[in-house]
Amino acid sequence: MNEWNGKEIKFPNNSVFLLNGIVDYNTIPAPNYKILAYVDSAGCTSCKLQLSQWAKFIAELNSVDIKIPILFFICPNDIEELKKILRRERFQYPIYIDERDELNGLNNFSSNSHFHTFLLDRNNKVVAMGNPISNIGVKELYRNIIQGKEMVQDNTGKTRTKVYIEHKNISLGRFNWQKEQQVKLTLKNTGDNLLMIENVSTSCGCTSVSYSKEPVRSGNSVSLNVSYKADHPEHFNKTITVYCNAESSPILLRIAGDAE
Description:
This protein is an alpha+beta fold. It contains five helices and 15 strands. A five-stranded mixed β-sheet has the order 5-4-3-6-7. A hairpin with a 4-residue loop joins strand 6 and strand 7 (126-129). The two termini are 39 Å apart.
C-alpha cells in the first residue's frame, strides 16, 4: 500500500475505450478524481468483472451527485467471451480492451487482484487503492475522499457481538453446470448484543446471496441463502464476504465444486 501511495499511473498512448462507440482517453475531462479498474486475463473474467455490482456502485455515486470517470481496462483471454458478457449484462460504460496488457506492462501491478483498482487524482497519482465492489470499507473510503470529508478513525464506534458459523467452507460436489445450485449458510449470534449485517459481497457474478436485513438477537441465527449458476463447465471456488458488527468481521465464507 505504501509503495503505491502517490505513485503516478501511466496509461498507454492514445488509449481508446470501446463500447457503444469510441472514446479517446485524451478527450476524457480531468476532474479532481477518477477510478481505474484493471482486470487481467487470469481466471474467470465474469467473476472478476462483477459488472452488475459496478453498475450499482456507479448508480449510488450518481444518486449523491458524484460524477467521476471510471476507467475499465480489461486484458481478456477471449475477446468474444468478453463481448458476450457485456451484452448479457447490458453494461453501458466504456471499456478499454487491452489485448497486449499494456497498462500492466507500464505499471507492473501486484499479482493480487484486490490491488488492481485505484482512486486517482487529476494528475493520475494514486490516492487510495482497493476494490470498492468487494470491500464496503474501501467503498466508503473512496466516497469520503471524493466528497472531501474528513477521515476520522473511530475506535469505539460500533457495538460488537460474536458470531458462530459451523461451516465456513462448503463443497457442492459435482453437478450439471446448467442447473442452479443453492446452499444455506447460517450465522448464529453468540454475543450479548444485536447482530447487524451491513453488507454481503461475492467474488463472482455467478454467485448471489439473499438474507434477512433484520437485526439478530443474542442466541438467534440468520441464514444466508446462496445461489450459484455457472456460465460454463468449470471447477469453482467462490468467496462470500460478510460485513457485520461481529468482532471477526469481515467474515470470509467459501463454496466450491465442479460444474460439469
